[in-house]
Amino acid sequence: MADGSVSASLPGVTAFGRIAYSPPDRNLIDLYVDGGIGFVGFVPGCPLDRFGMAVAYMRISDAARNLDRDTQIFTGAVSPVRSSEALLEIIYEGHIKPGWLLAPYFQYVFRPSGGIPNPNDPSGVSRIGDAAVFGITSTLRY
Question: What local confidence, expressed as pLDDT, does residue 1 receive?
Answer without folding.
Answer: 45
